[in-house]
Amino acid sequence: MPSTPSPLESAEARAEFVRSHTVLEPVPMVAEIRLHTATELVPIWRATENWLVERGLGVPFWCVPWAGGQALARYVLEHPETVRGKRVLDFGTGSGLLAIAAAKAGAASVRAVDVDPLAIAACTLNAAANAVVIDALCEDVVDGDPEADVVLAGDVWYELGASARFAKWLRAISERGIRVLTGDPGRHYVPSNARELAVYDVPTSMELESSKSRRSRVLELLPIPSSSRDDTPSRPADE
Length: 239
Ligand SMILES: C[S@@+](CC[C@H](N)C(=O)[O-])C[C@H]1O[C@@H](n2cnc3c(N)ncnc32)[C@H](O)[C@@H]1O
Prior knowledge:
By secondary structure, this protein is an alpha/beta fold.
């Protein structure tokens, strides 16, 4: 007997799920961008838990703008020359926040990637709500050769294995001349060899971060000099 199809199997069903579980709200640190945002996290996490577990995915990251992403989006809008006229890849897009910021700041083209199909649904809806064009793809591009001048990675340094993999790949592409910027609020596995470009105090919720604000850094990942080639994220938590 064919199994009952999951209610989230089609793109339209995923879009409807995002619409019906969120409200369109300005991002606290980036009020010029509005995102489909969960007002309460527990109901949306419960509603997606089984679907996410079946696919080996974590929590529904797309339903809030994360502190590191907010800092990096603020930086991109305050420094549009970072992306203006360039091909931008938003890696680990979640809600699409960085992709939208890059498009608003004048990027020539913006691709957003995530491994969670619901993130792609949210990113697509959020792009439309902010009147920007984004090419959103559900794909694991790590270890690939992105056609980009700038990669933005907002708040992706929270798991040891994944962070080591991301850091190795992002350093490799930065050695090939692609600029790699990340936003980080002091997660455990942020790479250490990076140049600090800006620091922002980002408003957050007690529910999400156990704090009303997180100091978040905008960092540029640097290619490691060949004498000290160790890509392992090593910085302990600042929490
Ligand atoms: C904490 S969220 C950050 C979302 C957004 N950048 C922000 O700052 O609000 C991290 C995102 O990375 C995505 N992710 C994890 N592994 C990934 C991979 N290998 N490729 C692409 N995205 C990935 C997750 O699904 C999640 O949406």
